[in-house]
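Next comes the chain:
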Amino acid sequence: MEALSQARQFKPDLILLDILLPDLDGLSVCKILRRQPSTKKTPVIFMSALSSEVTKRTVALHAEDFFIKPLNLERLERRIADLLHPEPAVK
């Protein structure tokens, strides 16, 4: 609940979100963020120790990417950079 409040208040450029959270699960948090005008277009990257195909497919419907823990930090940094600074489309 705290993360939802802070996301509305601070309007982050990107959100890193774990699937397993104490109050609400990450998917529920993401669905709420997607309904809020201030955060509906904010890129979300999920992280989780859960690695099933069902989890990956479900997350893909709601987020820009999914990383399995332990994280590959170089890959995560590249993905964040791509989301925050996309290259213009080539015509």
Remarks:
- Residues 4 and 29 are 7 Å apart (CA to CA).
